[in-house]
Amino acid sequence: MGFDDRWAGDADEINHWRETQVRVTGPVVPQLQKLFAENWERMTGEQLAGRDVFPPLDISGDVLAGVVGASKKEGWSNIREMFLLILAAARRTYYMNIAYFSPDPDSMRALSEAVERGVDVRIIVSGPDIDVPSSRYLAGKNYSRLLKAGVRIYEYMGTNMHAKTVVADGLFVTIGSSNFDNRTFNYNNESNLVVFDDNVAAAMEENLCRRS
């Protein structure tokens, strides 16, 4: 979640970015706390521990969820594999809303092969109003090949699109900080919520259709 005036609106003007954020409760929260505590210790040397920092949490809700995280220390494969495993498992739909999109050759092949086996692959990427213009140019070099393979690519217009989400088969969802590029996979500290729930997936699909 970004703490800045750019996250104050709802893509209602050029200075208010388009974002997707989520609030979670219950047993998934300690997974996020663990990522925070590991990063805090790495940056400050201070260990966060004890019930004052991590109080016991009750069961909340009935949605199956977890967190996938990555950092330079741990490597990139878990975040990259999360995206590609969802793609490999998809049988009907794979809808990606991604701010910075620059797939490597293996990812390009995986996207093309998904279309070949009948998956409806759609990707919403940033349009002209983007905070890192070079990333848009880098992404554009892959569009021709992907479009020829049958991947549908859309650009978000009106303001900067900063969301990073995937919805697959109306059942599997990921929402988080991870982009689909080598910088994310190799260098960044990232965290993504993963959800296995048809109601959450339906809400995400409706949100994508309404805002795209």
In short:
The chain is an alpha/beta fold and 212 residues long.
Number of helices: 7
DSSP strand tally: 7
Indicate the low-confidence ranges by residue numbers: none
Q: Helicity, in percent?
A: 25-40%
- CATH level 3 topology of the domain at 74-173 and 196-211: Endonuclease, Chain A
Give your account of this protein's structure.
The protein has a domain at 74-173 and 196-211: Endonuclease Chain A (Endonuclease, Chain A, 2-Layer Sandwich), CATH 3.30.870. It contains seven helices and seven strands. It has helices at residues 29-44, 77-89, 105-116, 133-140, 143-149, 182-186, 198-211; strands at 64-70, 93-98, 120-126, 152-156, 164-168, 172-176, 190-196. It has a seven-stranded mixed sheet, sandwiched between helices.
Question: How does the SSE layout of this entry go?
Answer:
Blueprint: H1 29-44, E1 64-70, H2 77-89, E2 93-98, H3 105-116, E3 120-126, H4 133-140, H5 143-149, E4 152-156, E5 164-168, E6 172-176, H6 182-186, E7 190-196, H7 198-211
Parallel strand pairs: 2-3, 3-4
Antiparallel strand pairs: 1-7, 2-5, 5-6, 6-7
Describe this protein with a few key phrases:
Endonuclease, Chain A, seven-stranded mixed β-sheet
